[in-house]
Structure formats: C-alpha cells, structure tokens
Amino acid sequence: MDDRCLEALSLFEHRGGSRAFLTHLFDPNSSNAVQSRAAGFYRTNRLSEILDLWWKDGSGRRQIEEWIESKSVEAVEGIITKEMDALTHKLQKNIKDTNPEELLEFTLDSTIQPAIDEASLTTFCLIVHALQTDRAVQENKKKRPDTIAPVIMCQIAKHRSQNAQLFAIPFGLTLWAAGAPRQCIGMCSQIGLSISFSSLTDARIAVSERCMEKARTAAREEHLGHSYDNTQTSSSIFVEQTVDAPARVCVGTSMVLYGLRNASDAACLLQPIIDRRNHLEEITFHQDIRPSEATMARIHQHQVLHIVEVLFKYSSDFQLLAKNYQPSPFLQHAAHRPPPSHYKTQQYPLRTSTTAENTIDGNIEIWREVYEDQLRFDTSWEWAVTCVAGSDSARGVFHLGKY
Question: What is the pLDDT of residues 67-80, one digit of tens each?
Fold first, then answer.
C-alpha cells in the first residue's frame, strides 16, 4: 500500500501536485463528471474517517482547530438558532392556563431541564462551560451551574418570545408572594426572569379562580370542615395618612375548607343534629365535661414527658443523659386516634373577605359569603358543616347566642 501511495503521489507531482487534484475534485465549479465522483465521497463516512486520522496527528489537529476557529461562529450560530427555536416553543405558556397544581410541582429539574435536554443540549453545554473554569470544575463544590444555567436558558427564550414564560410565571408569582416591590418585579421582567406586574395580576386571578373551582367541586362531592380567622394586612409602612388614601391596616377574614376523614352522609345530616340538640338535657360538669380516668391518665403522661423534655433541654445534669435516654420509646408521646400513615388533609383556601368576623353581623355575613357568593350554593342546604374559628369569631358567636 505504501508503494502504491508513493506511485500516486509521484504522478500528482507532474500534474500540479495532490493539492491541485483535491482542490479540483471538490470544487463546485468543476465538471459534472468530476462532481459526481466527489458526491460519492460525501455519501459515505470516508470524510469522517480521514478527519479522524488528521485529528490524531498533532500537526493535522492544529490545522483543523485553526480552521474550525475561523468557521465555528457561523456553524454554532446555526445550531444555536435551531435549538433555541425548539426550546422557545417548548417553554411557551399561556398566563390564563396557570393552575395551582403546576405551581406546586414546579422545579427546574422536573419542569425546565427535560425540555432543555430534548431541544437545546448543545447550547446548554456551551453556557455551562462558560459559567465555570476548569479549576472550578475540579475544586469548587459550592458554586455549581446546575441552577443558574437553566435559568439563563429560560431568560434567552423569554427574550426571543414573550410567550416563552414557563419559568417566568412561577418566578414572578414567587416574587409577588415574597412581597417584592413592583419596581423589582418590573426590573426582573425587563431581563426575562419574570412576567410584568400587570401580567402577574392576570396570573393571580387565573390561579385563584382555579382554586375556587377545586373548592366548589370538593364542596359538592365530599363533606368539608370550615375554618376562618381574622386577618390584618398592612398597606403602608408610613404613619402619616393622606386624604382618600387606603387604610393603613386592612381588616378581614381568611377562610379555608378542610376535608373530613371518615365523614359519612348519615353523620353530617343537619336536621337530625338539630333535633337531637332540641331534646338534649342540660350538660353537667361531672358527666359531660370532666375528663374520664383514662383521659386524665393520658393527660398526666403527657405532662410528665413535657417535664422530662424541659430537664433534658435546660438542666446541665440531664443534658448528659439526653443523648442516651431521649430516643427511648418510654419517653415518646403516645398518639391517640392517629390518622393513617402518610395521610394528608385536603385543604381548599377560599378568597379572603373584607368582612370582620368578630361581630354578630360579621359572623353571619362570613357564612353567607362563603356558601352563596364563593361556593355558589343556594339556601336549601341539608348538611352540617363543622367549624373551627378564632377567638374573635367565638366572641361574635357568643354574642349571637344571646339573641
């Protein structure tokens, strides 16, 4: 094979050399017959094999690197454009489609990273390498590009299309929930991290309406408990109040519905409960209020354990024994009627009302707002609703009982 190569090279030397031969062979302006021979070269993996051989050689590798450096910008631009077009399409999200389930499940690893891996892996790798030095890759264990690189990709996609807001919507809602000023949200919107403040209002309305839809559906399909308490919202950090300005502190009522475990239809019918209440005898302390002996024993056991916990925490003599004795099963609080393992009570937050619940009229109005305005029930309601309310509500109900 070496002899044949030398013989071919000697022939090329008398006809302009191998360089002139290869240049004419791959010249797009050469004759059709010559171009057809070159086309067969492109259709196979021969070009890749030759480039691999040149890459293994030091001189050849330097030549390839110099050539790539001069042509790489144009080639990479095409790759990045194609990938970012695909990623921008995958990150599109309509503000009106925002729902609480997606917000609760949103993470960079599960929501954003799969789209990046599928659509724009080359661009992502370039950004990751741009974010850290070779030394940082080996030694830096704290600053990792795993978080900031996907965010940068989302910023680029948001800059390319305002509809690519799969990241910007939850991030903007996080800023709003954390109390970030409007100017801060606007600045984050300008750099592609968040949606605008006006769009955030639309997103909040969409999320709240879907929360209400869940609450309305649950209220018609299962028995729920109703809990509410007063809330105070500060609308200004300044003491001075100007004319026609909003009140410095807005008072209202926050309300949540909770799922009731093991609540049957028979147990929740309202009329039998009212009938039993009308025929009940007056309660007495000894029979109805005073704890039984078994209950008193459990209360006593809890109090003893609380004393032991205080000694373990604050007494220097007991602190030496805490590590050995605190994990003992004899020093653990017993669970009475515990829920099933991994059980989570379903919660359905309602809209906060501006009605104060510490008055007679306020307590009545709260229930009317919940079941007529928010849950959209009519007055023909046959089920009892358990209620857990704050001290202000209890005072309102106490005054209502006088009438």
Answer: 777 777 777 888 89
